[in-house]
Amino acid sequence: MSQKPEKLIDKKGLRLDGRKPDELRSIKIDVGVLSNADGSAYIEQGKNKILAAVFGPKELHPKHLALPDRMVLRGRYHMAPFSVQERKSPAPSRREIELSKVIREALEPSIFLEYYPRTGIDVFVEVLQADGSTRCASITAASLAIADAGIPMRDLVVACSAGKIEDTIVLDLMDTEDKMGTADVPVALMPNLNAITLLQMDGTLTLEEFENAVNLALEGCKKIYALQKEVLRGKYVSAKEVEE
Amino acid sequence: MSSMITRVKQKQIAQLIAKGKRLDGRGLTDYREIKVEQGIIERAEGSARVLLGRTEVMVGTKIETGQPFSDTPNEGVLTVNAELVPLASSTFEAGPPDENSIELARIVDRGIRESKAINLEKLCIEPGKKVFVVFVDVYVLNHDGNLIDASALAAMAALLNTKMPNYEIEEGEVKIKSGYTPLPIRRHPITVTFAKINDKLVVDSWLEEEHIMDARLTMAIDDDGDICAIQKGGSGYFTPKQVLEAAKIAIEKADEIRKKLEW
Known about the structure:
The complex is a heterodimer of chains A (244) and B (263).
Chain A: E1 27-31, E2 39-45, E3 48-59, E4 72-79, H1 94-107, E5 119-129, H2 134-148, E6 158-165, E7 168-171, H3 175-180, E8 183-190, E9 195-205, H4 207-243
Parallel strand pairs in A: 4-5
Antiparallel strand pairs in A: 1-2, 2-3, 3-5, 6-7, 6-8, 8-9
Chain B: H1 4-18, E1 34-38, E2 46-52, E3 55-66, E4 77-84, H2 99-114, E5 124-126, E6 130-142, H3 147-160, E7 163-170, E8 173-182, E9 190-197, E10 200-203, H4 207-212, E11 215-221, E12 227-233, H5 240-261
Parallel strand pairs in B: 4-6
Antiparallel strand pairs in B: 1-2, 2-3, 3-6, 5-6, 7-8, 9-10, 9-11, 11-12
């Protein structure tokens, strides 16, 4: 185990990795990274490394799960055994089952599910390396993978966390800050619709602190959203060049 | 799935809510009648039954000795599990916990854990080796909506009713002595769950309201009126304004319930 740091914020007001309270970690996103999937995306956010893949719309198995009026979205969030300090058993934990559910529910409002009755799509998220706020980075990547699969969407979903460490409200918590901090608030947003599709919180915040944390997370979401769009546009611009 | 009559009823529920009314006569932020009974299962170290209208949840606690987690060697262990047993609803099936029961258990757990309701340090027997493990088992007996709030209330009521065995250490072995002491409880988190129906926030939804809700939002509030856990569920969304409105209502409602229960 790495040693626990004494302070999460130094005298200059900087965090363990030198960030200011309202600063995101460096983010790198790619789309269309897996050839077998209908849509895919890869995200690196700080030390997080996460792959998302989408298969579908396709016939649903088992068939009795199919719905007559819309497509069924299934989601799986899974962590690789080597993604964390102590090996994680590959069997789905209760945490992973809960996260699969909330991630699915965060993505559902963005998709025109009614366009594809009786079908299903599977969204698979594999966390290859985890460093805090993985559910947020997973949503950001999964939404891009859905867009990459060409599925009609109301908006992209983007997610970012905010929290409280040593009396300061900060953006985009990394693992140590999540574990040692006072609170963690992951938020997912459809920016064009101003719609929050995931909201959770661990830890204790006053009403005022909560309001500040949500607003900071929403600001973070909007920054990542710009990047999401740029990456998606970039892929199709370059695809066009190849065709010509 | 839903018969003609319930479709008509669902439409009526939604239309009433748009006008700020509810089919059962409650206001949008009114709870159903809450009844709490404690100490109903003698074999359990603590127990409680909560009735929230027709929703009925029983919680039993058991205490055993076990190993602490490696990152908290000086603290006892809290484990929350929820069972949606088939006798509670025609929609529940027997079998291993599904995502709904896991989510329910984890929301109840989060409220208790994050508010630091139990003084877990007092449950340490021998640092890094032996601690008391508190098992909180949530048993849903009748499902008529808002299982989260009913379960969280029942869990707290059962913990407040829980007695820890007295013990002494003899030659490195834990010897259970006669008599009991109450579990060290220092906080009383209360969860308040909202359903979003027709773009309105509704507190303590009953089953038929849950059938038509777009999304769900749960907030756990501690004794100081601070927020200590949140969970959004369902495939709809909330606007940032609705989230803050919900937080304010949740703080008021939690205070109201805590006063009523004298916690």
